What does this fold into?
Amino acid sequence: MPKIVAANWKMNLRRQSAVELAWALKSDGRKCWLFPAFPHLAPVHDALIGSELTLGAQDVSPDADGACTGDVSAEMLADTGCTLVLVGHSERRHGHGETAELLARKLKRALEAGLKPLYCVGETLEQRKAGKAQAVVKDHLSTLAGTEGIAAVAYEPVWAIGTGETATPGQAAEMHAFIREELKKLGLRLPILYGGSVKPENALELMSHPDVDGVLVGGASLELTSLRAIDDAAREIE
Ligand code: 13P
It folds into this structure.
């Protein structure tokens, strides 16, 4: 299976730079998954027409259309041309205190609207140091019980996000093998991406392991040259 390269642009870029990046990736024949900020979804969608790039949102409301000021519903995202959505990213799970119960509702709404969630899991440094990394990830994965239509799982150790510190290929491979086993117990077979300070310098080694099906890239996905280099690494392995 070809390795997946997903770009989480987080709360970065301006409309014009997001559209230019999308155009450049399209002209280059890339097949990445792109997650721009909400205000950039529509213009990026238009830029991607005729390409093999896939559009996703970074979050979704747990509720259907209605009186939810500031929220964006799954139907609105689908209507804007999104086919994917991030659910459970640590910057929401920890940064905004999103609970397992809330994430289950988001997954349900996304799936009902025909969006495919990219579901993120990962332990904090404290949890890893306490020897609880696998237990925490197992707990995060349990939210997927009974679901159908998930695009992929992303393992993003919180201590590696935006810190410049990457999980070693060994640490990533070990957790990915564990996640695969846990998913199997839930009756799920899904691609498992690694995220956390992925850069052109470490992408090839990380993705070389058969249990790492791709990468979810933050900071290094904001520049065409580095995103292209990471995607080149992915294509090298195929
Ligand atoms: P960085 O690549 O900036 O560490 O971010 C990773 C991430 O959170 C992707 O979702």
